[in-house]
Each structure stands twice: as C-alpha cells, then as structure tokens.
Write a structure and sequence with these properties.
CATH superfamily of the largest domain: FAD/NAD(P)-binding domain
Number of domains: 2
Distance between the termini: 30 Å
Number of strands: 21
Number of helices: 15
CATH topology of the largest domain: FAD/NAD(P)-binding domain
Radius of gyration: 22 Å
Structural class: alpha+beta
Shape: globular
Bound molecules: flavin-adenine dinucleotide
CATH class of the largest domain: Alpha Beta
Largest sheet: 5 strands, parallel
Amino acid sequence: MIESSRPRVAIVGSGIAGLSAALGLQDACDVIVFEKRSRVGGHILPVAVEDPRGASAAVDTGFVVFVPETYPRFVSLLDWLEVPHASAKTPFRITDDVRALSFPAAELLPLCGRAIPKACRRDLLRVYQALQRIRAEGLGWLDNVSVQAWAEAQGFQPESVELGVVPWVASFWGLRPQTVLSVSAPVALREIARNAGHGTMHRVVPDTQRYLDVLRQRVTAQVRHVEVESIALDAAPAVLTREGAERFDHVVVSTDAMDARRLLANVPGVSDGLAPIRYEDTVAVVHHDASLLPASKAKWCTFHHRRRRQGNATHAFTTWVFDLLHEWTDDPTRIDTPTLLTTGSPELLESGCIDSEQILEVFEHRHLVSTPQVVDTLPTLPGLCKGHPVTLAASYLGLGALHEDALIAGTTGADRVRAALNLPPMRWPF
Ligand SMILES: Cc1cc2nc3c(=O)[nH]c(=O)nc-3n(C[C@H](O)[C@H](O)[C@H](O)COP(=O)(O)OP(=O)(O)OC[C@H]3O[C@@H](n4cnc5c(N)ncnc54)[C@H](O)[C@@H]3O)c2cc1C
C-alpha cells in the first residue's frame, strides 16, 4: 500500500460504468476518476440548449431510453437518486420537411406494421416465437451464429430480413445494415426480447442532464479531466498522463474496449484478449437543418434506418419511420429530404435553438458490434486481468452493452476491486 492508509484507486473513464465504480469504492478508498473529455458522463450525452422562452433545457443525444422491466438496476439507481422517469411518449420526433410530417414516436409504431409485406408474415411470426422462447427459456437453445446465418437457416424471405430483422437490430445499436448481419443472433434476439413487448420505453425526466447532475453530486471522488496515455504495471500500477506518472494500488478501466486495449497494450494477454471486440461509428443524423448535418451528404441517414430501392426511387426506412418513404434519389449524396431524429421537445427542435457543434458530438461515439466472436470472448474477459491490479469495468462486459450492462459492469467492477484490496463488501443502496 502507498503512503495513505486508504488504498488509492484510479478509475479511467467517467461514463456510468466509471461513476458507479466510484460510488462503490469512494467510502473505503481514495479514488481519482480520470476523464479525457471536458465533461463527465461518457455516453450520457445531454446537449444544453435554450428553449424558445430562454429557459435552459437539454436534448439527449446519447443514452436516452430504457425499458424499466429489463433495466432493474438502473431503475433502482434512479429511485436512489430521486430522479423521475416517465413513458417516452414523444422523445423521438421525426420531421419530414418536404411533406411537413411530424409524428411523435408513439404514433409511428403502428406504421411499422403496415410496411410488412404479406409474404413476410410467416417469418415475423417465427421471430416472435423465438422471442417468446427466449423470454421463457433464456438463450441456451440458440446457436451463437450471425444474424445472417440464423435468418438463412430459418429460410427467411430476403425481404423479412431487410424490412424486419435488420432495422430492428440496427435500432438498438445505430449500426449499418451490412454490420447488423454480422451481429450474433442470440444477442440481437435477446435485445429485441428485452426491449420489445415488455411495456413502454421510458426516459429520464426531464432529460439526462438531471440524471447526470444528481449522479455527479453523489460521486465525492475527485474527477480529473486529463487523458490517460497508458497504464504501466510494475510493482504497483502507474497511470501515465501528460502530467506524469502516478502510482495507485488498483486501476479500474471503464473505457470502451478499444481504448482499454491501447491503455493496456503492455500488459501481456489483456490487449490480445480484448482484440475481438470491435466498434462501429454511430450512424446518426440529429437535425433536419442542412447546415447542422455532416459535411459528407453520404452520412445523411437516420439513426435507425436502411435504404431500399423500389423502381427508380430509393426509400429510407427506420424502425420508427418504417413507412414514411422519404424520397431518396439514386445518388445517396443527393438526398433532398433531410430527416430529423432527436429527443428534445418538439418546441426545442422547431425553434432552431440547437447548437450544431454540440449536437454533432454524437458522431464521435461508437457502438459495439456484438459478433459471435465477441460473445465467445465475453466469459474470458473478467479473467484477463487475473494476477494484475487492474479491473475491467465497462459496458462491453455485458451481452447487450446497453446502459444497464454498463451500470452492472461498474458495480461488479467495484465489488471485485474491494475483494482484491481486502475491503468489506459494498452494501449497495441501489
Ligand atoms: C449514440 C448512442 C446512443 C445510445 N443510447 C442508448 C440508449 O438509449 N439506451 C441504452 O441503454 N444504451 C444506449 N447506448 C449505449 C451506451 O453506450 C451505454 O448506455 C453506456 O452509457 C456506456 O457507458 P460506459 O460507462 O460503459 O462507457 P462510456 O459512456 O463510453 O464512458 C467511457 C468514458 O471513458 C472516457 N475515456 C476513454 N478513454 C479515456 C482515456 N484514455 N483517459 C480518460 N478517459 C477516457 C471517455 O471519454 C468516456 O467518457 C447508446 C450509445 C450510443 C453511442
């Protein structure tokens, strides 16, 4: 142990995994959270805006929705924080300027049903049966194969995959259609089973800024806004930043797996063990004002979308706007119907008071691609650091890599560190 009578613990990353690990360690350790960005929260990404009356508000562009029934730990955290949540009746709003359409998400859902061709109904029934079986029996009966291999084995119509399976899966992770086909079928189906048909989606009220503010108040550990360049493991681990090297008794790595690989490049086995975990840049457009969209028009696609050719026209579909049929030209760089998909109140979006630079930050984020290989790797991950004073704690340790998984990774990570440092087990209030 170094100098202080309390163990010193460094946590790299201030997303929910890092912050919840801090909550589980700060009573017994001197904790420093290192965060490379100027703000805490990671994928909790509220963007501050002024509403039309000049009051402050936020648009959620990262983590925003959850299903209470399948996020028990997170709901318990919100209860402990005394942060309310409510049905996400209108968080997703899609505006089509050309047709002047504007629907809250709740009204869009029935449209999904209408877009399913008759020939595909048998296949969709199969999907629903698989979901029911997963809910009843878990995943044990499903082979860990890709979505494409699974759909082929089921004899699905290509359209069922294109119009049903792919948009559904893409909607959970903001992935490109071609990537969705490489995702592990058990993960994809589990996420659908976990999120669909389980009651309504909820969101934090009024926005995730409130959640983040209250969470931040509970974290008494010091947060340092500096990038960790690497972690050295000699006698005691050292965290290297531009400010120099600092020794700790234990280091918790709560970054995504790609950052963790870089940080732990010198630790035999750990970096290689993380290698199968890959990410894809988030595919998202969050505003209908062309001046707010990325410079490359090829990126003008909606968060949950795919494109389909029909005669001379190419149409865009999303889980939420299955049947809005935006008129896309053959040349994807000549899209003339920019689409808005974001989560603030309609007033905010219509008032044009959203700061483009901040909103576009969402493009800096990336989503885990849960291939069958990743699923095979999952059980080995916690053991990677065995024998080292380092603990991995981030969303990729969970099967779905969603907010509940990240929270569980953080709390489990803290439990592991306490055990490694011979500290009494944490009595979690949530
Ligand atoms: C656009 C988007 C939308 C999403 N929406 C939802 C949703 O609606 N519902 C849901 O359940 N899940 C959603 N997710 C999944 C989301 O990833 C998780 O909900 C969760 O927030 C991830 O938390 P985390 O703590 O594991 O990682 P992160 O939130 O990514 O935190 C990692 C932190 O580590 C920091 N960091 C990285 N490297 C270093 C370094 N070298 N030094 C210091 N700091 C470093 C990063 O800056 C970041 O702050 C979404 C993800 C994305 C990308």
